Amino acid sequence: MHYTNEIQRPLTGLQIISTVTNMFLNDPVTSWRSVYRSFDLPSYTLSIACTVVTAISLAIPPENVDLALPVIMDVFSVDQSTKAFLLDSYLPEASRRTYLPFSFMYYQRS
Length: 110
Description:
The model has no long low-confidence stretch (mean pLDDT 82). It is built from five helices and no strands. It has two domains: 1-41, no CATH class; 44-108. 65% of the residues lie in helices and 0% in strands. Helix 3 packs across helix 5 (80-97). With 110 residues, the protein is an all-alpha fold.
């Protein structure tokens, strides 16, 4: 999984930032819309959902993540395809890549 998608997106976040910076500096304003629309960007909903899922998975014990996330997604009316992607693809991969041998639970902070 790459960049909130099952298939690698053509540009990384850093490459998009570089392109946008160069666009602002070198391209006429009239071309900005077409440059921006050429990017393969995830939806705002998916971006926010991935951020929230990651934060929750770091904040509560792993055994509770699988129980809590479907309920939280239902409360916020996350559509079924996004929910399936988050639970079946994103969360397992994010957990594998961000594994920490401890939890950030509030009572463990000093």
